[in-house]
Each structure stands twice: as C-alpha cells, then as structure tokens.
Design a protein that fits this description.
The protein is mainly alpha-helical. It has helices at residues 17-33, 45-49, 56-73, 89-98, 104-109, 111-119, 128-131, 133-143, 156-173, 188-191, 216-224, 245-253, 256-262, 269-278, 283-309, 312-340, 349-361; strands at residues 4-9, 38-43, 81-84, 148-150, 181-183. The structure holds tryptophan (TRP).
Length: 363
C-alpha cells in the first residue's frame, strides 16, 4: 500500500520552536525521504474557528503566517500539497456521516478535548462544533487515505479516536477507509518542549514562546532570560540539569558538532551537564551556547522566509494549487464513502433496475 501523509496546524498564531521540534522538522525529513507517495499539509482554519468563532479575522490573518512558516522550514510545495481546510467542503460532509459512529460519552472522555474544555472555560457551555472537532479531524485524515500522521504528542488522543472511527466505519459499511498511524518525535525532549519560563508547554497565551520568525535580537532576549535552576545562584554552586529549561532545549537542539563549533572545551552535552552538576559553570555561558545553537538552526529558516515574504501573491497561489489538488482527492474518497454507505442513488444503475423490476412485477 502506498504511504500517504496528512498533517496540519490551526492558524491561530505564528509557529514556534515547540511546533518545530515536535513536528515540523520531522515533516521536512519525511518529505525529503522520498518514501511517501503523497503529502498533504493542512492549514486547519475550520478547526481554529471551533474555538475562535467570534474572531474570524485572527484566523484569516494567521493563514499566511502559518504558510510562510511551513515554506520557511523547508516544506517544498512541489513535493507537498499545502492546502486550506475550509475550502474542502467534502471534509464537512464526511464529518456529518462519521458523527453517527461516535457517542457523546466517547467524545467527553477524549483527554485533549477534556483539557481544552478546561483551558477555555467551556465547562458550562461547550460549543457543539468544538465538541465535535475530533470527528472532523478524523475526516481530515481519512479524506486523504493517510497512512501516516506526523504530529506532536498532544494529538495522540485525536489519532486514536480517528482509528476507532475507521474501524467502526469499515465494519459497518465495508472496507472503504484507511487506518492511520501516528508518528511522534523520537527524542524525548522534543515530545513536549517547555516554554522559556519552564512551564509545561510553549503556548502563545503564556507568552513563553520562541517563534520561528523571531529576529536574532528577540531570540537573544528570550534565551538570556530563560528559566534555569533557581537554586543555582553562584557560579560555584552545584546546579540541577533536570527541569532546567536551558538543558532541556539543549537536549532537543544541540549536537556534538555544535560543541566543536561553539564550545570546544566540551566534547558533548554529557560533559557540559557533568560540569554544571559539579558547580563552577555559570548559566550565562550555557545560555550563550544555546543561543548559538538555536540561531544556527533558525538562520536558514529566516533566510527562506525573507524570500517568500517578497512575493506574497505567489504564496497564496501555492495555497490555491495545493487546495485544488486536495479537493480532487477528497472528492474521490467521498464518492467511495457514499457508495459504501449506499447513498449514491443516481450512480447506481443496479438500484434503478431492481426497483423498476419490483414495480413491473406488481402491475
Ligand atoms: N489539531 C491540530 C492542531 O491543533 C490540527 C489538525 C486538524 C490536524 N486536523 C488535523 C493535525 C489532522 C493532524 C491531522 O494543531
């Protein structure tokens, strides 16, 4: 069976380092591996509207930001289809049919939905559209017959719910849908990159993000004020590496080559950690190293972004072409689904024949 990728992000803000190590970097590697027959990368504006219904302008403005972030990390529009979710009505139609295969209590038990309801104070009144977004996400994935969904760890319950819907659909209506696999980062530090303040997650609302589009000056300010070990006061004090955000970021980003290039007194991260634990290594030195490592990663991304920023109409053209290609594939799947569900009346010559025979007999 051919391998197909579908993945995406909500356009509610610019993408940050958490998105990068959690998923974007991997997508580019997968794209360039040549192992995938088709790659679909979706800007999930319809999903973003499920909890931003009163703020369509925010979603509209961020479509171009996310598109620029994709292109700047190295998503190549020749190899990958970047498209806009709301422009594919087939996804809405699939969602409507999948709704019959999911119970309210199953949605209530979805851990991502649960925590998002809390975060958004939706407890007393949950918008129905928001509540159902895991079903719509299953439509996104299955419409493209995706085998592989590279996403961050927080999306795991969504993919599990999608797999259940696929199994249910196939058992009721016959094998029309493909059950996808999730692809998580293999580096533990990349699974959930903490914010610069040491909080569990990088998130726009907490103001603890380093954005892919940040200038070198912005990155410097953020790295130099990052959370470390609060008990490491004097340089000579022994320091703690666990839960120390600067070291978590080094776990996620640094390589032995970075040490050779920027901090040749140490061979690798283990040596640096040992010194920090013993005492005698100051935070500023470690932060400066991290700054070099991050800027090295971000420089080519910034350069590509500047190129694309010079021709915004072309970026919209890329989205338009990607959307047209996605539309055709989703329509094809919708046709299969409707045939499996026996709601393809006008295409079914056999049905019309059988019905006519039935009535000719009763004359
Ligand atoms: N839920 C994802 C996010 O919050 C976006 C998304 C929508 C998605 N549909 C998807 C991701 C399908 C992977 C597959 O970023």
């Amino acid at each position: 069976m051919s391998k197909i990728i579908l993945t995406g992000d909500r356009p509610t803000g610019r993408l940050h380092l958490g998105h990068y190590v959690g998923s974007l970097k991997r997508r580019v590697e997968l794209q360039n591996s040549g192992e995938f027959e088709k790659i679909f990368i979706m800007i999930a504006d319809a999903q973003a509207l499920t909890d931003n219904a009163d703020n369509p302008e925010k979603v509209r403005q961020n479509i171009i930001e996310v598109a620029l972030d994709y292109l700047s990390v190295g998503i190549d529009p020749v190899k990958s289809n970047i498209f806009i979710q709301s422009q594919i009505p087939q996804l809405t139609e699939l969602t409507f049919y999948y709704m019959n295969l999911v119970t309210v209590s199953r949605l209530q038990r979805n851990p991502t939905v649960k925590s998002e309801i809390q975060m958004r104070n939706f407890e007393a009144s949950i918008p129905v559209g928001f509540f159902c977004y895991p079903i719509s996400q299953a439509a996104d994935i299955t419409a493209f017959k995706a085998t592989t969904v590279p996403v961050g760890e927080d999306q795991e319950p969504m993919i599990e719910q999608c797999r259940e819907i696929v199994r249910k659909f196939n058992s009721v209506y016959g094998e029309a849908l493909v059950e996808p696999e999730i692809l998580l980062p293999d580096n533990k530090a990349c699974l959930r990159l903490p914010g610069t303040d040491g909080k569990a997650k990088m998130s726009k609302s907490l103001g603890n993000c380093i954005y892919l589009s940040d200038t070198p000056e912005e990155v410097k300010k953020k790295v130099m004020s990052m959370y470390t070990d609060p008990n490491h006061i004097q340089v000579s004090d022994p320091g703690q590496v666990e839960g120390n955000t600067v070291f978590t970021y080094l776990d996620a980003f640094s390589s032995d080559e970075d040490f050779a290039e920027f901090l040749p007194d140490y061979k690798n991260l283990d040596e640096l950690k040992d010194h920090y634990r013993r005492g005698g290594l100051g935070d500023v030195k470690v932060k400066k190293f991290l700054l070099n490592v991050i800027n090295k990663e971000l420089e080519p991304i910034r350069a590509r972004r500047h190129e694309y920023e010079k021709d915004i109409p072309e970026v919209y053209n890329i989205l338009k072409r990607g959307t047209e290609a996605a539309y055709a594939v989703a329509q094809d799947t919708l046709n299969n689904v409707k045939a499996a569900m026996k709601i393809d009346y006008f295409n079914d010559a056999e049905l019309i024949k059988v019905q006519s025979e039935k009535y000719s007999r009763t004359e």
